[in-house]
């Protein structure tokens, strides 16, 4: 990894103070410039003396008409200015689905099922065991009821009932928390990557809650684990156009129809990692929601690396030799994720980094490209821009890789690791479980900035920046309420099974 | 005094500059169709009567009742001899499709249409800023939108959305997304790709409400280029005037009118309920209620209100139309005052007839939809664009004309939009129009389906148990 482009005093304590002073200087440059100007004006005023000032004041002829006109103009212009500002989009509240204890899949259950279902291929069972040992998952992750059967019974009815269970529970919870009435929803976006029945899941939600007939509904699918942020992007664009509206986003992944029944190794990996989960989010652009909203959306950046063939093929749904469908994860998934992240950072960096970091980055870039100096590329310190990080809990390797790339400490990635441990990889809703973890730990203060990063098939990297609107009290209910005191747990490298 | 003047004028001019910038960002929000390209699959995928019969006979679960039902359905479907089906049907593999079949069906479609579209407009794939893909019955990882981005090497910062399961009205929903994005972002070019995947959705059982879907849907697709760039507005074909979406999912009977589910033996198919026409009518009426005030001139609305008032005052329930009104209520309002052309989703002959009746349309108005149904079948979400292509090929579209697009979808939704023709499309040749090769043969003398002639004898068969297909029918 890279270091600051001054290798000589890298171990010196003085460097820390130099860095701090430099950051302070550059970030507050304009305010620091104001001080000498104000000093000059103050000196001038003192020099002139009170009589001269009164003379200057009297020489200004203020006609009543002039006064009225100019004040009217000022009021008019400021009204138009404030009315045509781009609308701020708030996240009012969200709720995550807590699966029932009966759906739990401890390691022992998983391995027993695996041995019974794959009894003809012990090597695949061995492979699954090794994956599970190093996965970073805990003993309390959940799979839908249909998968608990031996063999699993993934019929369309079962898939629909899983969808109903996870989505309706999360939405009921959201309605209770926010006091939202179903008939007040203006926009509904549902994203579920792998299950898409006709009528769509969005129609299912509209049917259950009897939503209005002029609702704008959208059903996104196939967009992978980053679809949650894509839905937020769509909601934001729609809320810019429709004043005084709210949007409900449902992010989920339905596991039932997608359990791989074959024995091809690269395709057994998703079986070990993906778990049941969902989240329902309420977003709004109403001024009245400003006071109770939890977060404000600052930026959302999407990067799509589909043009590159290697990135495109790294998460690919295909049939194995026996015709069974499953998702093939390629071996260089980590490298591709790292590259996609770099592409995303180059766009989001200038938007969020303080001026000091950007200047350093610019200087190092100039030095390397123009003067051809042998400096290592400078990785900006994102810890200065954000207080909390929510990295998609795609797997232990993804979190490790990102921690290394962004030079984050253990505490920054704690939310991601603990979510992976308690809930597994719940695909697009994992970011919301992580956010809920940070809130449950009482770490979210007003003004804190959160960075959510998600990856998805294709290969996409999407990131969202939120700013906390009010200090959030530890929630009494929610998916972490009964176990937050046990966390953080220490997750060993390998859990011997 | 001078100092004050200068300072205040500076301040005011700065504020004016800011206001100008804000106002400027609100312009260029109109949504224009630059061009569109429908897909004509290759001729070796044409489904003739002979071949339809063969496919039906391949399904060993069907009995006499089902044959009679199918005969009735196909004969009255309004579908002709030149519609297209996926390749695997011709290889006899419709009951065991693979993932690759579905993907190659889609590839054949988008590689052909998008290439033609971009070449004709001299654009490169990296010029596209927004991509919306909607294919109702196919859901792959990576999504179809990612496939298209990979094939054409589109930009990294492209805004992409992949919609599925939204039924035959998904085209209008995609246009809705693009319309909203155009209001926030200036100078963008959007590509909407719409199609239907039939390869993996053949129903191999014998539930009657589910085999109907087998007969109606055909292969087809369309790619549409939309933009809000001022520089391209001169070359544009259509401008979006308004778009209205109605969703009746809250009603149980509307929601259950079209559901994908498993039959008693676990085979997946799309169940089309008998109450589907009623659900469609309800949704259509609600949609009309919202869109009519936006598209008809005030004089017509006034006249309609007056006539309603007079009817109420007279206390005269119109007896004559109660019987027919069960199928589709007559609107009583003349849509021709505000709309010149009607683009009706080719869901089936019944749908076109019902809409024609309720909007009081003539045969001339319904001709594009009927001919599209005859030539291309029900291509689901992309059917609207084929109907539009017919109108263009028949040189009906003049500058200032208004086109009303109506579509229905599972759920139950009715989405409609109105386009205004921006430049004269009835001069010169419409390049790349999918009807170019055969427009002179339309409308044909008769659109009676030869299916009746060939298989009509099934109607006379009565004995269910010993019924066997005669040799000559094979």
Automatic annotation (TrEMBL), chain A:
Signal peptide: none annotated. The active site is at residues 225, 304, 388, 392, 421, 425. GO terms for molecular function: fatty acid elongase activity. Pathway: Lipid metabolism; fatty acid biosynthesis. SUPFAM superfamilies: Thiolase-like. Residues 387-467 form the Beta-ketoacyl-[acyl-carrier-protein] synthase III C-terminal domain. The keyword Transmembrane helix applies. CDD domains: CHS_like (cd00831). It catalyses: a very-long-chain acyl-CoA + malonyl-CoA + H(+) = a very-long-chain 3-oxoacyl-CoA + CO2 + CoA. Keywords: Acyltransferase, Membrane, Transferase, Transmembrane, Transmembrane helix. GO terms for cellular component: membrane. Its EC number is 2.3.1.-. Its main location: membrane. It is found in: Membrane. Residues 81-369 form the FAE domain. GO terms for biological process: fatty acid biosynthetic process. The chain crosses the membrane at residues 20-43, 64-83. It is an enzyme of class 2 (transferase). InterPro entries: 3-ktacl-CoA_syn (IPR012392), ACP_syn_III_C (IPR013747), FAE1_typ3_polyketide_synth (IPR013601), Thiolase-like (IPR016039). PANTHER family: 3-KETOACYL-COA SYNTHASE. Belongs to the thiolase-like superfamily. Chalcone/stilbene synthases family. This is 3-ketoacyl-CoA synthase. It comes from Brassica napus.
UniProtKB/TrEMBL annotation, chain B:
GO terms for molecular function: fatty acid elongase activity. It is an enzyme of class 2 (transferase). InterPro entries: 3-ktacl-CoA_syn, ACP_syn_III_C, FAE1_typ3_polyketide_synth, Thiolase-like. Residues 25-313 form the FAE domain. Its EC number is 2.3.1.-. Pfam families: ACP_syn_III_C, FAE1_CUT1_RppA. SUPFAM superfamilies: Thiolase-like (SSF53901). It catalyses: a very-long-chain acyl-CoA + malonyl-CoA + H(+) = a very-long-chain 3-oxoacyl-CoA + CO2 + CoA. Belongs to the thiolase-like superfamily. Chalcone/stilbene synthases family. This is 3-ketoacyl-CoA synthase. It comes from Brassica napus. GO terms for cellular component: membrane. Residues 338-420 form the Beta-ketoacyl-[acyl-carrier-protein] synthase III C-terminal domain. The active site is at residues 168, 247, 341, 345, 374, 378. The gene is BnaAnng15510D. One of its GO terms (biological process) is fatty acid biosynthetic process. CDD domains: CHS_like. Pathway: Lipid metabolism; fatty acid biosynthesis. Keywords: Acyltransferase, Transferase.
């Amino acid at each position: 990894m890279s270091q600051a482009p001054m290798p000589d005093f890298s171990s010196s304590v003085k460097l820390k103070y130099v860095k701090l002073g430099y950051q302070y200087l550059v970030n507050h440059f304009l305010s620091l410039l104001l001080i000498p100007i104000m000093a000059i004006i103050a000196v001038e005023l003192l020099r002139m003396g009170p009589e001269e000032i009164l003379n200057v004041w009297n020489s200004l002829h203020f006609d009543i008409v002039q006064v009225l006109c100019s004040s009217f103009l000022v009021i008019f212009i400021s009204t138009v200015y404030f009315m045509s500002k781009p609308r701020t989009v708030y996240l009012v509240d969200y709720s995550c689905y807590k699966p029932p204890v009966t759906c739990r899949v401890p390691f022992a259950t998983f391995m027993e099922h695996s041995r019974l279902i794959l009894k003809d291929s012990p090597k695949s069972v061995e492979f699954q065991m090794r994956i599970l040992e190093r996965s970073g998952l805990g003993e309390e992750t959940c799979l839908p009821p249909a998968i608990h059967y031996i063999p699993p019974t993934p019929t369309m009815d079962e898939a629909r009932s899983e969808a109903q269970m996870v989505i309706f529970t999360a939405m009921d919870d959201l309605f209770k928390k926010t006091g939202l009435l179903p008939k007040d929803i203006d926009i509904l976006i549902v994203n579920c990557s792998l299950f898409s029945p006709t009528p769509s899941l969005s129609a299912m939600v509209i049917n259950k809650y009897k939503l209005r007939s002029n609702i704008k509904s959208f059903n996104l699918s196939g967009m992978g684990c980053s679809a949650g942020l894509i839905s937020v992007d769509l909601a934001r664009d729609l809320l810019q156009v429709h004043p005084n509206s709210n949007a409900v986003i449902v992010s989920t992944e339905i596991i039932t129809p997608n359990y791989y029944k074959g024995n091809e190794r690269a395709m057994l990996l998703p079986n070990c990692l993906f778990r049941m989960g969902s989240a329902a989010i309420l977003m709004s652009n109403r001024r009245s929601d400003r006071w109770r909203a939890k977060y404000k959306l600052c930026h959302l950046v999407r990067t799509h690396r589909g043009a590159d063939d290697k990135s495109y093929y790294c998460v690919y749904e295909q049939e194995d030799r026996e015709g069974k469908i499953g998702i093939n994860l390629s071996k260089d998934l980590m490298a591709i994720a790292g590259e996609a992240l770099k592409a995303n950072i180059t766009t989001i960096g200038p938007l969020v980094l303080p001026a000091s970091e950007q200047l350093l980055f610019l200087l190092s870039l100039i030095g390397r490209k123009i003067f051809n100096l042998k400096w290592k590329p400078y990785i900006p310190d994102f810890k200065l821009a954000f207080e909390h990080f929510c990295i998609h809990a795609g797997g232990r390797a993804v979190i490790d890789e990102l921690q290394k790339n962004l030079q984050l400490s253990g505490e920054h990635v704690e939310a991601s690791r603990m979510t992976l441990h308690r809930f597994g990889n719940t695909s697009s809703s994992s970011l919301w479980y992580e956010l809920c973890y940070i809130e449950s730990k009482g770490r979210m203060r007003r003004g804190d900035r959160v960075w959510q990063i998600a990856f998805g098939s294709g290969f996409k990297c999407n990131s969202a920046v939120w700013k906390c609107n009010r200090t959030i009290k530890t929630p009494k209910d929610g998916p972490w309420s009964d176990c937050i005191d046990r966390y953080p747990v220490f997750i060993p490298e390998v859990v011997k099974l | 005094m001078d100092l004050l003047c200068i300072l205040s004028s500076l301040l005011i001019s700065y504020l004016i500059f800011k206001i100008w910038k804000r106002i400027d960002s609100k312009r260029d929000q109109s949504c224009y169709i630059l061009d569109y390209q429908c897909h004509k699959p290759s001729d070796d995928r044409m489904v003739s009567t002979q071949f339809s019969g063969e496919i039906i006979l391949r399904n060993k679960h069907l009995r006499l009742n089902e044959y009679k039902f199918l005969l009735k359905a196909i004969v009255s479907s309004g579908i002709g001899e030149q519609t297209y089906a996926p390749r695997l049907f011709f290889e006899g593999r419709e009951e065991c499709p693979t993932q690759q079949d579905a993907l190659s069906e889609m590839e054949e479609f988008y590689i052909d249409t998008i290439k033609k579209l971009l070449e004709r407009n001299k654009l490169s794939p990296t010029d596209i800023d927004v991509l919306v893909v909607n294919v109702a019955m196919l859901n792959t990882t990576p999504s179809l939108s990612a496939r298209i981005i990979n094939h054409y090497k589109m930009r990294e910062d492209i805004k992409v959305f992949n919609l599925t399961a939204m039924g035959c009205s998904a085209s209008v929903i995609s246009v809705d997304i693009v319309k909203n994005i155009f209001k926030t972002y200036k100078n963008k070019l959007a590509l909407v790709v719409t199609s239907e995947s039939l390869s993996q959705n053949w129903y191999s059982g014998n539930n009657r409400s589910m085999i109907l879907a087998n007969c109606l849907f055909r292969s087809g697709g369309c790619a549409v280029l939309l933009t809000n760039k001022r520089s391209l507005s001169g070359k544009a074909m259509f401008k979006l005037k308004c778009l209205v979406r109605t969703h009746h999912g809250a009603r149980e009977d509307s929601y259950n009118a079209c559901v994908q589910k498993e039959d008693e033996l676990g085979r997946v198919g799309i169940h089309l309920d008998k109450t589907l026409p009623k659900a469609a009518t309800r949704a259509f009426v609600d949609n009309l209620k919202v869109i009519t005030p936006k598209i008809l001139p005030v004089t017509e609305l006034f006249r309609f209100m007056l006539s309603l008032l007079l009817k109420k005052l007279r206390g005269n329930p119109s007896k004559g139309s109660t019987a027919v009104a069960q199928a589709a209520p007559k609107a009583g309002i003349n849509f021709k005052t505000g709309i010149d052309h009607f683009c009706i989703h080719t869901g089936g002959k019944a749908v076109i007839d019902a809409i024609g009746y309720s909007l009081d349309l003539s045969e001339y108005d319904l001709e594009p939809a009927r001919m599209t149904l005859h030539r291309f079948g029900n291509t689901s979400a992309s059917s609207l664009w084929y109907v539009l292509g017919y109108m263009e090929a028949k040189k009906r579209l003049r500058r200032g004309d208004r086109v009303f697009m109506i579509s229905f979808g599972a759920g139950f939704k009715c989405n409609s939009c109105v386009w205004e023709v921006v430049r004269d499309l009835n001069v010169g040749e419409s390049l790349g129009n999918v009807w170019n090769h055969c427009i002179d043969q339309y409308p044909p003398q008769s659109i009676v389906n030869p299916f009746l002639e060939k298989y009509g004898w099934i109607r006379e068969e009565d004995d269910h148990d010993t019924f066997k297909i005669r040799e000559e029918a094979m």
